[in-house]
Each structure stands twice: as C-alpha cells, then as structure tokens.
Amino acid sequence: MPDASFVAALQRRLGYAPPRQILSAALTDLFPGRIAVVSSFGAESAVLLHLVAGIDPATPVLFVDTGRHFAETLDYRDRLVGHLGLTGLRTIGPSEAEAARLDADLSRAVWDPDGCCAFRKVAPLERALAGFDAWITGRKRFQAATRFDLPVVERDGAHIKVNPLASWSAADVADYVRAHDLPAHPLLAQGYRSIGCAPCTSIVAPGEDPRAGRWRGFDKTECGIHRPAVPHLLNQE
Ligand code: SF4
Predict the structure, then answer these.
(1) 130 vs 34, 57, 137, CA distance in Å?
(2) pLDDT per position as a tens digit, 67-120
(3) Using an 8 Å Cβ cutoff, are 222 and 116 in contact?
(4) What is the rounded radius of gyration, in angstroms, for the C-alpha atoms of the chain?
(5) What 3-state DSSP class applies to 31?
(6) What ligand 1 atom has the least distance to the C-alpha of 114?
(7) What is the number of other CB atoms lying within 10 angstroms of the CB of residue 90?
(8) Which end of the chain is more exposed for a tag (fewer CB within 10 A), N or C?
(9) pLDDT tens across 18-36, in order?
(10) Cβ neighbours of residue 131 under 8 Å, at least 6 residues apart?
(11) Which helix (H) or strand (E) holds 156?
(12) What confidence category does residue 210 fall into, taking pLDDT thresholds of 50, 70 and 90?
C-alpha cells in the first residue's frame, strides 16, 4: 500500500505540471517497468496514447475486452495501435467460462450492471495490475460532475494512479487531436461523446455531460475500476 505522504508529495510535484512532464516522470523516473496505461480506446483515448508513444512506445497498454464492445472500438484499437507504433498492447478480459457462468444470455448489463462490470472489467483489470505498482488513466475533470476534483496523483488500493490529463478541457483535447492529426473513434461522428460497452452507451445531447450517455437510466456513473471493487458480486450466478 503506497504511503499517503508519498502520494501527497507526488501530487505536490506533479499536480500542476503539463501532461508530457507528468508522463515522463511516471514512466521513466518514478515507476520504470512498473507502470501501465489503461485505455478504453474510446472517444478521447488517442491523446493520452499519443503522448505515451512519444515517450516510450513499448509502455504496457492494458485494454479490457469486456466482450460487449462495439465492433468499431475493436477496429479502432487495432488501427490506433498501428498508427502510434505502440508495441505493449495487452488485451485482457473475463474468461469464456466466467462469461458463460455469470452472464450466459448476455442480459446482465440490463438487470445488474454493477455485477456485469465487476466480472467483465474490474476483476480482469485487478488481475492484470497485480504485476504493476502504478497505472495511468486518461480521465479529465470536465468529463463529468463526479470527476470535478480529480487529482493528478491518487492512491488506488495497492497502486498509485496517475491522471496526467486531469486539468485538460474539451478544447485542449480537440486542439491536441487537430494539431497531431490523430485518428478519431468512428462513433464520434454519430454523436457519441464517451464510448464504453455497446449495451451501456448512448448518444449524448447538446449540453449534457460527455458521460451522460453511459448507463443511461441507471444510478451508475462509473464502471467500478475507479472505485473499490465489489468482489462479492463475482460469486453471484
Ligand atoms: S459497461 Fe455494461 S456491458 Fe460493459 S461490463 Fe459494464 S454493465 Fe457490462
């Protein structure tokens, strides 16, 4: 478990630094060989991955293949990895046996999205992160009211979590994408602003939070990888 004073010192050191400096410190100075990027290959993922590729293209990139993604996301993952020259992609996810036991008819997202996320996302990521001390996310404060106070460095159980783009606005992201001519997720053109699994992602109306289309109709705003896991759900039939 990382010491709270260590986390606070990192936040003081990196909390107001530009993203490239934060990433460089995390990848090459603080956690060399012991840190991974976690990417959904969603609407804004290209920015973080482009920054990482510019520092170390062999950085491990963990993608949780839940088995419920849009086909467009899987295609985009492969295209973006090739475009950026990333060599450390690791696709993780639930086993076929888990999926058959816990969601045989693929309806769990409708009647128990927390349980579905627990075995399709949270548990596979926890297993994959066991080999690392720290991980990097692309979360930003502007994306949702629930992320308004997101720090750059935080403690996440046994890990340090680094959010180098926390302070970036939607305009910063758009400017970066334009400046580097980064490929866009194909669903952006259809009105999606935050892209997760197909059963739990809908188009966002003007003025809504970018993540308003996730789990629409449920009192759920995060998949669970950004909060304590719910291991009891993994044992449910
Ligand atoms: S986002 Fe939806 S389909 Fe994907 S794991 Fe969570 S509940 Fe299941």
Answers:
(1) 10, 21, 16
(2) 999 999 999 999 999 999 999 999 999 999 999 999 999 999 999 999 999 999
(3) no
(4) 17
(5) coil
(6) 7
(7) 11
(8) C
(9) 999 999 999 999 999 999 9
(10) none
(11) strand 153-156
(12) confident
Q: Which helix (H) or strand (E) holds 91?
A: strand 89-92
The whole-angstrom separation of Cα 233 and Cα 237 is 9
Q: Ligand 1 pocket test: which of 120, 121, 214, 218 has the largest number of ligand atoms within 8 Å of its C-beta?
A: 120
- Is the whole-model pTM more than 0.70? yes
20: Cβ–Cβ under 8 A, 6 or more apart, which residues?
51, 54, 55
Q: What values do phi and psi take at 138, rounded to 5?
A: -105, 15
Q: What positions carry a catalytic annotation? A: 223
Q: Name the average pLDDT for the chain.
A: 91
Q: Residues 147-166: what's their mean pLDDT?
A: 94
Contacts of residue 220, Cβ cutoff 8 Å, sequence gap at least 6: 113, 114, 214
